[in-house]
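testing teh design pipeline on a random one, pls ignore if ur not involved
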């Protein structure tokens, strides 16, 4: 059977579960990082077959991969035992995804030319599964027009996916692009290849984290939001092909890779960021816990105990209702993004969420009970109810990454009939 390369489509919440991944290891110093990559793939539920070039075996022993995968490492196309026991066509046929890491300049050149003089290049040409390359080489080799042309050819002609290379200090002591992408980023790229791209080309604006409302240059009024729910939504949307703008209040979370992140401090800065980004978007998802009030007269100098007395009074002003403002403006314009809010409640969770759905004129409220120890603020899991005018749907307790995908499943359905 021949035809275009097939792409297995998995649940985006666990796209590597039970998939067959061939990890092709090229002969570069970054070959040692492929060990961590294989470990991460296996941890994510994949079954891994490693195929090494002869030169790669000079950097890492095949036995290391054999111990990690529980499978014989395939190194020699011309070995009678390996070819009969493993067989490059069987490996190629069985694969759901082939990941080459590191993809050296030499491997890229041979793949671009269709040369199949070893096990790795043969598997890459014989497979109908998608191929993801993680290039790694000296900066000058990477920037060489021949290497660039080879990569373009692989992408344009063969539909090959590419992740990285990263920029930084290289093993050859040069600095610049050429570093193998971090193993976690290669895993995420693999997840994207196997996930439905049902948000491809859609622009999503997602808010996350708390706001800090300044009292003076040192102190602020804030809340318990860690940003985990909003960041999980942003990562999940990016995995499904969305162009994500994450508007984030102050959090301690690592900077997400490959997203447009706008950092803001307080509610009014979040309002300004939303004003710049919301109206061109397909959907706005407001997971941020935005302060409803702010100190009316923040001091530009640190307040001294001696000046404010022992029982100071803080006078508060109301912050704007950002989501309500978007809902009202959309009603006025008669057009705008799908609007999704979160309702953080402590009792009558669905009742209050339903009231907010109407008051803020939005399409979907995601209600969570923030008094539950395993849901809401700061924890890694959540349990939510999707509240719409047409009814409710429960999403049971799960990791916030999984909950994010289940919310996006509904967002995908809701934006499908819309023009953008
Ligand atoms: O960040 P984590 O630690 O992972 O925690 C996740 C979460 C509990 C913060 C998240 O799941 C959540 O519930 N976020 C919404 C918190 C909140 O502010 O809820 P609310 O019911 O007060 O507000 C309702 C909606 O209006 C929210 O979408 C909120 O972003 C928005 N809002 C609120 C106040 C305000 N002035 N303007 C707004 O737009």
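output:
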């Amino acid at each position: 059977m021949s035809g275009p390369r097939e792409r297995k489509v998995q649940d985006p919440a666990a796209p590597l579960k039970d998939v067959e991944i061939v990890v092709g290891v090229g002969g570069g110093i970054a070959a040692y990082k492929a060990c961590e990559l294989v470990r991460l793939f296996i941890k994510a539920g994949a079954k891994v077959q490693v195929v090494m070039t002869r030169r790669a075996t000079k950097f890492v022993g095949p036995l290391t991969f054999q111990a990690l995968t529980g499978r014989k490492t395939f190194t020699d196309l011309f070995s009678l035992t390996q070819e009969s026991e493993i067989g490059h066509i069987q490996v190629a046929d069985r694969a759901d995804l082939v990941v080459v890491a590191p993809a050296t300049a030499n491997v890229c050149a041979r793949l671009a030319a269709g040369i199949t003089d070893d096990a790795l290049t043969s598997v890459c040409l014989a497979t109908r599964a998608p191929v993801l390359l993680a290039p790694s080489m000296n900066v000058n080799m990477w920037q060489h027009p021949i290497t660039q042309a080879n990569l373009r050819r692989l992408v344009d002609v063969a539909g090959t996916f590419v992740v990285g290379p990263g920029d930084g200090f290289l093993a050859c002591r040069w600095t610049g692009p050429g570093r193998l992408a971090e193993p976690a980023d290669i895993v995420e790229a693999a997840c994207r290849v196997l996930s439905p791209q049902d948000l491809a080309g859609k622009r999503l604006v997602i808010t996350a984290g708390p706001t800090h409302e300044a009292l003076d240059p040192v102190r602020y009024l804030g809340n318990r939001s860690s940003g985990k729910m909003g960041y999980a939504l942003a990562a999940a949307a990016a995995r499904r092909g969305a162009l994500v703008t994450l508007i984030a209040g102050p959090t301690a979370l690592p900077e997400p890779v490959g997203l447009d992140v706008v950092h803001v401090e307080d509610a009014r800065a979040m309002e300004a960021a939303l004003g710049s980004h919301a109206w061109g978007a397909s959907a706005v998802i407001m997971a941020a816990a935005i302060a409803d009030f702010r100190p009316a007269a923040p001091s530009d100098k640190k307040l001294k105990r001696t000046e404010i007395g022992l029982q100071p009074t803080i006078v508060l002003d109301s912050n704007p209702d950002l989501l309500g403002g978007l809902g009202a403006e959309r009603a006025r314009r008669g057009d705008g993004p799908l609007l999704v809010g979160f309702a953080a409640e402590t009792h009558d969770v669905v009742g209050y969420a339903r009231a907010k759905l109407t008051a803020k004129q939005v399409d979907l409220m995601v209600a969570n009970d923030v008094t539950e120890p395993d849901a809401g603020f700061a924890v890694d899991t959540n349990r939510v109810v999707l509240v719409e005018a047409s009814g409710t749907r429960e999403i049971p307790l799960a990791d916030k990454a999984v909950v994010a995908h289940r919310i996006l499943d509904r967002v995908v359905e809701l934006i499908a009939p819309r023009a953008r």
